[in-house]
Amino acid sequence: MSTSTLATAKAPSPAPTNSRARVIVASLIGTSIEFYDFYVYATAAVLVFPTLFFANADPTVALLASFAVFGVAFIARPVGSIVFGHFGDRIGRKNTLIASLLTMGIATVLIGVLPAATVPGFHVLAPTFLVILRFAQGFGLGGEWSGAALLATENAPKGKRAIYGTFPQLGAPIGFMIANGLFLILNVSMSTAAFASWGWRIPFLGSAVLVIVGLYARFKLVETPAFEAVKESGNVSKLPIARVFKTSWRPLILGTFIMLATYTLFYLMTTFTLTYGTTASSTSTAAAAAKAAGKPFNAAAFVPGLGYSRQSFLLMLIVGVAFFGIFTLVSGPLAERFGRRRLLLVVTGAILVFGFVFAPLFSAGFAGAQGLLIIGFILMGLTFGPMGAVLPELFPANVRYTGSAISYNVSSILGAAVAPFIAVALWQAAHGSTFLVGIYLAAMAAITFVALLISRETRDVDYATNLN
């Protein structure tokens, strides 16, 4: 046998890689499914859960209780980020992502079969199980986002991390549009009574199909080059949570506050606006609606909103979210050209200004309300898109899953878990005005702006070999 033949026979075969299409699909479809599951609950928390699970409470108290359960998932997310981050940095991104998807999907399906509190014997059990399953949803999502972001960015060609990082981010508007589009179809195609009785369960049960599709895409993946490099160097962290707090505590804090304005804006634009937009605009209208539904009406506790029908406002939201998706994609090339920090400083400044015009726009008729949704979601796309690259780039490769997950999910408590609850309370305190809600958004944007000012640019970080 010739020397050249021997050399060819002994040459190692190239390591398997993920194609660009596989990376995009697996990162995008996973977060689309996860956010679909999350939005299904967020929409139901406004439209049906206050009467299904907190039927004996005052309407305002029931709504606040529904939002409180909504916030339980955000408490669970940091717990999930620690658990899934541990395994993501210990055994790899692929298998951890599969586990997080299953956790979220199973919890969502089980919510779809949960009896209402009005069923005999479930007056206490139904709300209790809802809290447990909501915790499981948040626990699963705690490990989903960072894994999907790492899957995309650790497979990205040089100079394209921010562009690749927008693909898992795009799952947010896609999941929102699927979930709320389905709710819109159900609202149009069935009576209010049928929707409240069983129609609301369809989106929850439908997530089973989406989870199967997501699992199929992720089982075909191979591990990311960055994690393979960590293994080959012998620098796999035995206890990533301890290591990240010891060596990367500053990025943990900065990452948490860099995400704060993004989270606050997002949940005000999706959850609070739906509540305010679909609340009756006058006492007489609210009283007539309560009478038609056979429910008691407390005029003293009533706070007016915009008075849109659920169908109309969901359609307005979907229009706004289309801009969210478009500008999420636009943000990637902008973050590569101008740098992550510079882009986010400009956008965060715009969010701060937006907070001061929030109330005047929202009260300026249909054009004002739709304009508010479009502007808010444009800003959302521009601030959310770069986060898929920014947060992971703050951390070394051997603690990247844990670090980015903790920052992202602790910020979810500070910026998202309490946002709808605080917004409703401020709206109630202002007797129907959303001025204080806008000030609240501006304050969160100011905190993020400061965090960005003292952070560093991460565009040129050596992503694969950066270890601690």
Task: Describe the protein in words.
With 468 residues, the chain is mostly helical. It has a single domain (20-453), classed as MFS general substrate transporter like domains (Growth Hormone, Chain: A, Up-down Bundle), CATH 1.20.1250.20. Helix content is 77%, strand content 0%. The termini are far apart. Residues 23-457 form the Major facilitator superfamily (MFS) profile domain. This is MFS transporter.
Mean pLDDT over the residues: 86
CATH homologous superfamily heading: MFS general substrate transporter like domains
Number of domains: 1
Figure out the total of helices.
21
Number of strands: 0
Radius of gyration over C-alpha positions, nearest whole angstrom: 23 Å
The shape, in one word, is: globular
Report the sheet with the most strands, covering strand number, pairing sense and barrel closure: none
The end-to-end distance, rounded to whole angstroms, is 47 Å
Q: By helix and strand content, what is the structural category?
A: mainly alpha
CATH architecture: Up-down Bundle
How is this fold's topology laid out?
Layout: H1 3-10, H2 20-47, H3 49-53, H4 59-90, H5 93-111, H6 125-153, H7 161-189, H8 192-199, H9 201-219, H10 225-233, H11 240-247, H12 249-258, H13 260-278, H14 283-292, H15 310-338, H16 340-362, H17 365-384, H18 387-393, H19 400-417, H20 419-429, H21 435-453
Helix pairs in contact: 2-4, 2-5, 2-6, 2-7, 2-9, 2-13, 4-5, 4-6, 4-19, 4-20, 5-6, 5-9, 6-7, 6-19, 7-15, 7-18, 12-19, 12-21, 13-15, 13-17, 13-19, 13-20, 13-21, 15-16, 15-17, 16-17, 16-21, 20-21
Protein name: MFS transporter
Membrane topology: Multi-pass membrane protein
InterPro entries: MFS_dom, MFS_sugar_transport-like, MFS_trans_sf, Sugar_transporter_CS
